[in-house]
Amino acid sequence: MQGLLSDLPLLGVLELINSTRQTGVLDVQSEVPFTVAFVHGEIVGGGILDWLGVDAIQASPLLPTEGSFEFTPRGVTGTPLAPYGHFAADWARSADEWEQVCAVIGSPSRIFQGALPPLIGPAGRSVREAAAQSGQTLFAVAQQVATGLEEGRVDPTGDFAWYSLRLQANPRARRTTVTEALDGRRNLGEVIAGGVDVRDVREYLLAEMRAGLRFPGSGWVLRDLVWEREYLS
User: Fold this and answer.
1) Alpha-carbon dihedral of residues 180, 186, 189, 193, nearest 10 degrees?
2) Which of 164, 181, 188, 222 to pair with 228, CA 20 to 30 A apart?
3) What is the 8-class DSSP label of residue 119?
């Protein structure tokens, strides 16, 4: 089963797989590419590239209007993350709430500092790091940081978690200020501090990742870059 999301909405695809009790993997190619794994119509896993799990699935857009999908029957194993109806309802709510939260914080990669113990302190942390350290879900931490930002308890530092990446420019890419700066020695934060526009770096990364660039953390980086392009550009 395959098709265009403009012809068959993703929610309809998910419901069809569930109602026909199919086992396999749904691959969605949209602005945010992701997969969903099913066993007898129940969702057992999935995520955005190498970012896997409930947080990743529920950060994926449930109502993309452009792109394509393909469901491939295969031998998937696993335990349902929740009954399909409950999981789909939670996903729909999370997808909407993520947009509201990111309109405030930009993305979970954004680094904040201030006084929001135990999540954020004077030294500064990204939402993702705070969630990993606290054991809370990524969305729960993002909500708290958004509230802290609105209350004036935390402020963005201007840095992002993906600034730590060290990448070498694709030799086939068109020569730009970004490709000339990516020598593999400096991290992206240093490249941006050196004068390269952060928006240009985001666009380069997104283009290269959609063309196949992969590295540890590709999934969360891609998701956060898309949010940032929408809310921080």
Assistant:
1) -70
2) 181
3) T
Give SS3 for 98.
Answer: helix
Residue 51, domain member (yes or no): yes
Q: Are residues 143 and 169 in the same domain?
A: no
Domain boundary among 83, 117, 147: 83
| Largest CA-CA distance found in the chain, in angstroms, rounded | 55
pTM of the full structure: 0.92
Domain of residue 175, residue span: 161-231
Q: Are residues 39 and 103 in the same domain?
A: no
The radius of gyration of the chain's CA atoms, rounded to the nearest angstrom, is 19
Whether the CB-CB separation of 104 and 150 falls below 8 Å is answered with: yes
> In this structure, what token pair is assigned to residue 123?
């030294």
Q: Which of 27, 30, 82 is nearest to 61 (CA)?
A: 30
155 strand-pairing partners: 113
Using DSSP, state whether 48 is helix, strand or coil.
strand
Burial call 24-33: b when 16+ CB within 10 Å, e when fewer: bbbbbebebb
Q: How many residues does the chain have?
A: 233
> Both ends of the chain: CA-CA distance in Å?
37
Q: What is the spatial distance between Cα 159 and Cα 73, in angstroms, rounded to a whole number?
A: 42
- The parts of the chain modelled with pLDDT lower than 50 are none
Q: Looking at the domain assignment, is residue 92 inside a domain?
A: no
pLDDT tens profile 99-133? 999 999 999 999 999 999 999 999 999 999 999 99
Phi, psi of 93 (to 5 degrees): -65, -45
